[in-house]
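Archive entry: two folds, one per protein. Generate the first.
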Amino acid sequence: MSKAAAGKDTDMAASLSIVVPAYNEEDLIAHTVEHLLDTGPKDVEVIVVNDGSADSTGRIIDELAGKHEKVIGVQLDENRGFGKAVRTGFKRASKTYVMVCPADYRFTLEDFDVYLVLIKYADIVIGYRRHRRMELPLYGKLVSSVYHTLVNMIFNLNFFDVNWIHMYKRGQIESYLGKSDGVFLLAENIIRAKRLGLRIVGVDVNYTERESGVPTGVRPGTILKTIRELLVFFLNGRRT
């Protein structure tokens, strides 16, 4: 049996909900969803949450949901933020495992295989984009390094990347689900889960650069909001 065939057998045994938050992703969202359906497990649902996009993202999501029974389209009436979109998607998830995937990423068969194997032995699996950070321009590299250094230092963690693709066990999510409406949600989930003594495993995965648009995570406003949420969360924890 080939490596690809073996990987597909592993995938077919899994039950997976993939939450895809999307904001102004009209050029990429259809391709991403179709790709996830083609490469994901047989028992998969893709929950696409339109976070109040100003372009045609919402219409495309409705078309995808009408075309594929495994696609669930969710429309937010205004831009609520990454964290809010993800939590909204979690509420619609029905499978054993839940994964958060950005609208601009092309997940590979090997990626799915690695996550689905590791989640059997851990409570949360988080992806590392090690090569990507090394190749970022100075500004992006500085932002990423400072943010992850702060998260690890302040909350006594040791993860290379807390902001990439996570896989959770659906039955556990409510016990540690963060309250952030922004990008900090993923880090907050990890911090809360770690405090509960859950096992978190990080793994290097493939990374593909987005083909269109600008990621919102590198915008100054998003960066400042994320740092503010991080500090507020830390200070509130100190008080309690």
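Generate the second and append.
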Amino acid sequence: MQWTRKNAKRATWTVAIMGLLVAGGACSAYAQPAMPPDMSGASAAVPLEGDAVIPTKSMLGVLRDGGLLMIPIGICSFILLVFVFERATSLRRGRVIPRPFVRRFMEQLREGQLTRDEALQLCEENKSPVAEVFGAAVRKWGRPSVEVEQAIIDAGERVTNGLRRYLRLFNGVSTISPLLGLLGTVLGMIRAFNAIVNAGAMGRPELLAGGISQALLTTAAGLSVAIPALIAYLYFISRVDRLIISIDSLGQQVVDLISAEGQANRGNGRRAA
């Protein structure tokens, strides 16, 4: 039975691959323009002269053809690269929520090995965002759980603002870059039409096509910067949200350990044991 299933899977994959090959051949055959029959009986068609050479340009040539607005678009691209690297480094989970510190801190709290001053000193020495939240909770050591939770909420808001630093810059780059590209395209098309009118070359469409192609370079450049900026913005926003959720969960555990209600419950449990 198992051998039969394997053969059936192999046959299915074989049929699927053959179908893809046939479909690809059909698509390629459909994409190639049909050549008119040669009345002289020759079987080979002579290629056009324009198809023999593919024009290429260097990056410097593309920037020069795009005009002055390629400069601010390039600046936006440089800023994006710098701050993507900075946020990728600053938002590492090991930096925001260092696992060795959190594990040791929580174990010592559960075992009753830390006093208020010792716990506060550990948090101040660590200096991570999660340690800042823990330190705010420790300052309310032995208070009702409502006060401890409020301290964690206030510290969490400060930490969230720090983690979301520079994220608006990504949003700004993703908004400004395509607008700069569109402005460059409009100015380039105006310049191309004026040149054609002044030269009296309305009967030469190749001049108009060349001017429009150069004008569209700024739009392509703006979109090439805006799309990665938007992707980076969404990615870092989701990472910050995940980190905040983890910090909130750990903060709630600290509340259960150091609040007045938590300490009373632990004392009752020890006496019962």
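Annotation attached to the second fold: The CA atoms of residues 97 and 130 lie 6 Å apart. The chain has one domain: 60-261.
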